[in-house]
């Protein structure tokens, strides 16, 4: 250290103290803690106070947005090396202990380079903030006061930068917090919006559901029928408005078995039985019953019920609909009446064909009466009168008179106007009566008749006159089919029998012209006729009569010439005469 004058020494120390005060005041200018401002002012103050040729600052980690490397030069303002070049030059010692640094370094290289005495100073106890390097070309650098100033400056810088780092960290944390809060707020807002949307959607779904229900309600109430549902035990739980309006009762009164009060008392036991058996079978079913209207009138209904199953197939509920069939039933009745009237008219029409037979039928007992009456007179006029013989002939007269009135009664039956009956009919007797009416006609036509009526034929239920009309039609048609047949015998065979499957049947076989097998069904069409004077309604009327008796009427061409018309009817004991019976060929007469 060079010897100094005490006056100069004192002045230098005073300057140093001024600088120190200036340095200590520096942090006051850093209150805003902007790292670039801190490092800039630090370097500028150092250059100014210590008269350095070089100050180099290097930060270990970024502090805010301050540059990592910063350099100030005094001597080479024109051609100063860039901070990175200085950094590169110093790099071998950057991490080393300041003690290990060389005392001097040539900085600036070829371009106006200088040989500088350097003083490295750690920022932070272990250099964790960075490094400050001061350099000066002059001899004696650094003096003690300069060392002091630089190290105090380094301390101040450390404290300032640490503060700035904390501040910037705080700022970063605050910003991060802000960012997170903003993100969370946005998420919450989105979640809220989503929730609101879902509640919209939910309200829409609820509205749609309500609309659906209203729609379903409207449909159920506008179905032209009485709709209901029951639990599995058969007790009712729902009735549509139309049902309640029809019976004129409130739903509460109809619940459980309350509905039964609206069923006609005569129909109720049968209906309850049917309902029980439908439930026992677990399958759809139907029944008929009369239901009382609110005004007390009864109307006939067809009750149809369907089971509703769960996924396992178990019945969980029953749905039913009652359809008003009163008008339809009335129409059916009217149709039956019309058919009966048509049948009667066609019977009357056949009367013309039968005049000879009818006259014969009546003439026979009448001539008997005439003969017996004159015999009786003769016996009484004899001397002595033959009273015993007269009595006998008078009795015969009465018998013949009765026979004549029977014939007339039968004719009135057959051709008069009467209602439809459902009585036990012996098909054999009915056939014989028809033949009695037609025998003369058959003889006239040269037809030979063969009757093969089965013994112990069970009775059928029905209208004797209508069934006789059918037989009469078949017999007259057979006779007509044989009218022009000359080359073979005109043979008519009438047979009755039992069917194996139950029921009875009757067959009328002729040896006539027959029919085209392809047209077998057209024969039964109304107004189909091949005759010049035919009406073509005989067979269609006959078929509807047989069908009304739950029977069947059909035609078959014979193996040889002619045709056979067969009818089957159920027996009075209930054995079938319809399809099942007709299918069974065995037992055919
Ligand atoms: P119609 O006797 O007035 O013609 P039907 O309905 O009784 O009316 O008969 C319709 C048609 O069926 C007859 O015209 C005839 O062609 C045919 N038909 C009926 N019975 C016989 C039969 N026994 N043999 C052949 N054809 C028949």
List the helices and strands and how they pair.
Layout: H1 6-29, H2 35-50, E1 54-59, E2 69-73, H3 83-90, E3 104-107, E4 114-123, E5 130-136, H4 144-222, E6 226-230, E7 236-239, H5 241-247, H6 251-254, H7 268-281, E8 285-292, E9 298-309, E10 315-324, H8 326-351, H9 355-381, H10 387-415, E11 423-425, H11 427-444, E12 448-452, E13 460-462, H12 464-481, E14 491-498, E15 504-510, H13 538-548, E16 552-557, E17 563-569, H14 579-583
Parallel strand pairs: 12-14
Antiparallel strand pairs: 1-2, 1-5, 3-4, 4-5, 6-7, 6-10, 8-9, 9-10, 11-13, 14-15, 15-17, 16-17
The structure holds adenosine-5'-diphosphate.
**Kindly, what is the distance between the CA atoms of the first and last residues, rounded to a whole number of angstroms?**
161 Å
Q: Would you identify the CATH H-level superfamily of the largest domain?
A: Histidine kinase-like ATPase, C-terminal domain
Q: What's the total number of strands?
A: 17
Task: Return the structural class.
Answer: alpha+beta
Mean pLDDT: 86
Name the poorly predicted regions.
Answer: 577-589
Radius of gyration of CA atoms, rounded to a whole number: 65 Å
CA-based shape: rod-shaped
What percentage of the residues does DSSP assign to strands (E)? 15-25%
CATH architecture of the largest domain: 2-Layer Sandwich
Biggest beta sheet attributes:
5 strands, antiparallel
- At the first level of CATH, what is the class of the largest domain? Alpha Beta
CATH topology term of the largest domain: Heat Shock Protein 90
Count of individual domains: 4
The count of helical stretches stands at 14
Main sheet strand line-up = 2-1-5-4-3
Helix content: 40-55%
């Amino acid at each position: 250290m060079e010897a100094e004058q005490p006056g100069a020494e004192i002045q230098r120390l005073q300057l140093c103290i001024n600088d120190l005060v200036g340095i200590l005041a520096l942090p006051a200018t850093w209150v805003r803690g902007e790292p670039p401002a801190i490092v800039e002012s630090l370097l500028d103050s150092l250059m100014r106070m210590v008269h350095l040729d070089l100050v180099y600052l290097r930060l270990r980690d970024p502090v805010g947005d301050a540059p990592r490397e910063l350099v100030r030069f005094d001597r080479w303002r024109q051609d100063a090396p860039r901070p990175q070049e200085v950094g590169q030059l110093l790099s071998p010692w950057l991490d080393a202990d300041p003690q290990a640094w060389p005392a001097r370094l040539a900085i600036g290289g070829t371009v106006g380079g200088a040989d500088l005495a350097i003083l490295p100073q750690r920022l932070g106890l272990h250099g964790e903030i960075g490094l400050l390097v001061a350099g000066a070309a002059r001899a004696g650098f650094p003096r003690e006061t300069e060392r002091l100033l630089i190290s105090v400056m380094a301390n101040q810088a450390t404290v300032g930068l640490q503060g700035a780092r904390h501040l910037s960290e705080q700022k970063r944390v605050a910003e991060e917090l802000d960012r997170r809060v903003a993100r969370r707020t946005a998420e919450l807002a989105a979640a809220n919006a989503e929730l609101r949307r879902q509640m919209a959607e939910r309200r829409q779904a609820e509205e749609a559901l309500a609309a659906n229900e209203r729609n379903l309600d409207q449909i159920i109430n506008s179905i032209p029928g009485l709709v209901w549902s029951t639990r599995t035990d058969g007790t009712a739980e729902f009735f549509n408005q139309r049902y309640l309006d029809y019976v004129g009762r409130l739903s509460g009164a109809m619940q459980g078995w309350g509905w039964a009060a609206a069923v006609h008392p005569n129909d109720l036991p049968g209906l309850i039985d049917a309902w029980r058996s439908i439930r026992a079978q677990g399958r759809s079913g139907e029944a008929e019953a009369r239901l009382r209207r609110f005004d007390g009138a009864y109307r006939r209904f067809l009750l149809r019920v369907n089971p509703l199953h769960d996924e396992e197939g178990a019945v969980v509920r029953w749905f039913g609909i009652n359809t008003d069939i009163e008008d339809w039933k009335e129409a059916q009745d009217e149709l039956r009446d019309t058919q009966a009237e048509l049948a009667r008219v066609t019977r009357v029409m056949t009367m013309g064909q039968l005049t000879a037979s009818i006259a014969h039928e009546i003439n026979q007992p009448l001539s008997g009466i005439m003969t017996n009456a004159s015999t009786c007179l003769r016996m009484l006029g004899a001397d002595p009168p033959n009273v015993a013989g007269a009595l006998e002939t008078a009795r015969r007269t009465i018998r013949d008179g009765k026979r004549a009135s029977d014939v007339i009664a039968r004719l009135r039956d057959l051709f008069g106007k009467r209602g439809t009956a459902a009585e036990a009919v012996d098909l054999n007797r009915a056939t014989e009566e028809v033949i009695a009416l037609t025998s003369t006609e058959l003889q006239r036509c040269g037809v030979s008749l063969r009757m093969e009526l089965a013994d112990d034929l069970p009775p059928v239920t029905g209208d004797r006159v209508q069934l006789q009309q059918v037989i009469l039609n078949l017999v007259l048609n057979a006779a007509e089919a044989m009218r022009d047949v000359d080359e073979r015998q005109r043979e008519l065979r009438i047979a009755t029998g039992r069917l194996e499957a139950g029921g009875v049947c009757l067959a009328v076989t002729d040896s006539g012209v027959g029919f085209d097998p392809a047209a077998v069904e057209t024969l039964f069409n109304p107004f189909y006729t091949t005759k010049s004077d035919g009406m073509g309604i005989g067979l269609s009327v006959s078929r509807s009569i047989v069908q009304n008796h739950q029977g069947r009427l059909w035609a078959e061409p014979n193996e040889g010439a002619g045709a056979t018309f067969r009818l089957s009817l159920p027996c009075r004991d209930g054995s079938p005469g319809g399809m099942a019976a007709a299918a069974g060929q065995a037992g055919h007469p």
